[in-house]
Amino acid sequence: MALATAAPETPAEATASRRTSRTANVALNEHYNEPVRLHIWKSKRRTWTRGQLDRERREFFETRVTGHAEVWAAISTAIELMRAGDLVTAQSILDAAGITVPTGDLCQGCYDQQGALYRLPQCIVSDPTNMVQTDTSTATESQDAIEQDEDEEALSDGKLATDDASGDELISEDMERRRDEKGKTSERDLIRVRVRLSDRGGPDLVLMIGKGQSVGFLARKVRQEAEISSVQSVRIAYLGCMLKEQQSLPDQGWEPGHIVNAFVVPRRGFNE
């Protein structure tokens, strides 16, 4: 009698088997997590331009009504970094916010520390491979795209915040002191800012700064008050968007009483 032999596994079955095996080893009180990776896709239903993608992404994160604002802010920041090619910092931000990505692909869903699911469309996570390179949209969309590209260039260069550098790129204490002195304002122009740091459970940090003082100044003050290590950098986000450090909070839509998020991540160069 001939013995029956099992059919060999296909590549897809082998991958599923390995994933199932790894998942089985995760404790029930832990969230399974895979290193984040960039989602690659091709649009089949519509043609995307840079301006359209940027507008869709802004509107998406501005209209989230479920989940936690700080989690959406972390996801938005991580996605920007991923599109800029900085997967290491993106992973650091997700880890700091307690976000897990079971498959490594944000389009397949991610979870916060309470187990709540956050879903993201493909067009929010990454650009399609067949994106139209020449934007034929309105002048307003073109300007929006230019501003977005400038933000992403800053992210890819690791210069989003004045602190985000190492070695001789660091701003000297003397220069920093002169800038802070120049930005001093009278008491009636001070604003009270509540900052939520990603590297600790609380309490929030409450700081007083001038209305016209920049987000970069706020980031430096957070570093000083929270005694953050010199091998870490601080990035300020509000309502899911990474703020430009050269502009003030009010100039970027911040409203008194609202919380801003401070993401504490390894400096570029120290984690490589």
TrEMBL record:
Superkingdom of the source species: Eukaryota
Domain (Ubiquitin-like): residue spans on this chain: 191-269
Positions of the UniProt region annotated as Disordered: 1-24, 134-185
Signal peptide extent: none
Pfam short name (any one): UBD
InterPro entries registered for this protein in UniProt: DC-UbP/UBTD2_N, DC-UbP/UBTD2_N_sf, Ubiquitin-like_dom, Ubiquitin-like_domsf, UBTD1/2
Segments of skewed composition (Low complexity): 1-15
Ranges of Acidic residues composition bias in the record: 144-155
Biased composition (Basic and acidic residues): 174-185
Protein name (Swiss-Prot/TrEMBL): Ubiquitin-like domain-containing protein
Provenance organism: Penicillium argentinense
